[in-house]
Amino acid sequence: MKIVTTDEMKELERGAAEIGLPPEVLMENAGLAIAQEVSGWLGSAARRQILLLVGPGNNGGDGLVAARHLHDWGARVHVYLCTQRRGDDPNYMIVRQRGITCTIASEDQNLANLGSILSSSDVVIDALFGTGKLRPLEGTFKEVLTRVREAKEKRPGLKVIAVDLPSGLDADTGATDPSCVAADLTITLGYPKIGLFSFPGRDLVGQLVIADIGIPPHLGQDIVTELITEDYVVAMLPQRPRSAHKGTFGRVLVCAGSLHYIGAAYLACEGAIRVGAGLVTLAVARSLQPILATKLTEVTYLPLPESEPGFIDSEASKVLHEWLADYDVLLMGCGLSQHLQVMEFIRNSLLNMPPSLSPALVLDADVLNTLAQTPGWWQRLSQDAILTPHPGEMARLSGLTIEEIRRDRLKVARDEAALWGKTVVLKGAHTIVASPDGEAKISSVANPGLASAGTGDVLSGVIAGLIAQGLSPFAAASCGVYLHGAAGEMVRAELGDVGMVASDLLLALPRTIKKIKGG
């Protein structure tokens, strides 16, 4: 599913007009879709007291159309116009002809009537401002939204529904005006907007539904940002023929773990196994192998020379290279540490790799921290690679601050993927996957239960396991992010998000795959 910017949405609307779908047709479609979603969400619109806040532009027009339909279905609708609509506005004329009560804010002294209406309303529909650049909310708009927020604080049962997006939320960045009211439900029109998946705005969206307003799909075919959907993942997941053997599903070499981060190696290997990789081998500091063998019984091992117990020696890269020819993908970094000898091992392994070796690479954690200290590293790393940084690691790699990254995560992921020529997985709530050619996919999941140590190691293993089975780096990263997030949602449904740990995801991964393949 495509995700759009403000400019892309305007272009889609222009394209629709050129093929015979002018704004008034889209507005009629949008208003009907809003009314249907509201009625379905409430169970029925009949006898519901609905206050509809109408703004000056097309978003207000959508709201007026919705008001008419909700009235016709038995709702008790009150339209509150924050600005005067033109007298010849056809949708306003129809509302008046229906006998729907309307109040104009400029005629409501001290907004006294608004307060009375709010006190008796079941639902407030915010149709003030839709897709557009963030503008400061001032004057009447600020006052009206402040009254709504105060009413909801007094009566938590009062429901707020936003049309397209909560007024005051920037459609491109997720930035919010202080007056923006949190919605219980947001009905976004045509296509979801990027700001709906960006914080702080995401916290104000509530439940998100996407309403079809009749824009033909082919008009959006060149949009390069998409939501990762179940349909996409099911189509990309490899087949499992009955005649298969372990070689059919690929070979993963995981280089991970150190004295203080033994668990990272376990989680990464299990992540690869649980999504179906045929063979996983763990390359690990020699003294740690007996410890991990008691926990990881399904993997094979490559014990590596140590500089001291629990830390891989810098010269161990020669051993790694000897084995690597037999593997489809190398996952490297989880828990390796920033020990000086280990960092040199990482550089020797990746930046001095023999030309005859061409495994796909999944690079995480301490590999990223090491590369961040290596000027021009991407010019020396010729293999296809997926980098999986969290915001702190991205800050070190890019030279940006964490705050700069959080302000526009999509742009940062895209820019750095293009500069480095690598696929970037920028982790966090609504993880972003960006390819070097500008394509990007966004996860729908924002699960605080995944904000705990080790979940990133599982994700890296999942991605590596999918690459081993033949997926391209971008497809493996996108599917891996989806499966990881869906597994987290499965665990949260069972346990809640407090106390969820990374290893809870491991058994949920094959269950998730089974569930989505079964429809």
Question: How does this model look, in words?
Answer:
By secondary structure, this protein is an alpha/beta fold. It folds into two domains: 6-223, 3-Layer(aba) Sandwich (Rossmann fold), CATH 3.40.50.10260; 249-373 and 448-517, Ribokinase (UDP-N-acetylmuramoyl-L-alanine:D-glutamate ligase, 3-Layer(aba) Sandwich), CATH 3.40.1190.20. It has helices at residues 6-18, 23-42, 58-72, 90-97, 112-120, 139-154, 230-236, 262-274, 289-293, 317-324, 340-351, 366-372, 391-398, 402-407, 409-420, 455-468, 473-495, 504-517, and strands at 49-54, 76-81, 101-104, 123-127, 159-163, 185-189, 207-211, 225-227, 251-255, 279-285, 300-304, 306-308, 311-312, 329-332, 360-363, 385-387, 423-426, 432-434, 440-442. The chain has a ten-stranded mixed sheet, with helices on both faces. Strands 3-2-1-4-5-6-7 form a seven-stranded parallel sheet, with helices on both faces. The longest helix has 23 residues, at 473-495. The protein is elongated. The model has no long low-confidence stretch (mean pLDDT 96).
Give the N-terminus to C-terminus distance in angstroms: 18 Å
Biggest sheet layout: 10 strands, mixed
Percent strand: 15-25%
The CATH class of the largest domain turns out to be Alpha Beta
CATH topology of the largest domain: Rossmann fold
How many structurally independent domains?
2
Question: Strand order of the main beta sheet, please?
Answer: 8-19-18-17-16-15-14-9-10-11
The count of helical stretches stands at: 18
How many beta-strand elements? Answer: 19
Radius of gyration equals 27 Å
The CATH architecture of the largest domain can be given as: 3-Layer(aba) Sandwich
> Which oligomeric form is depicted?
single chain
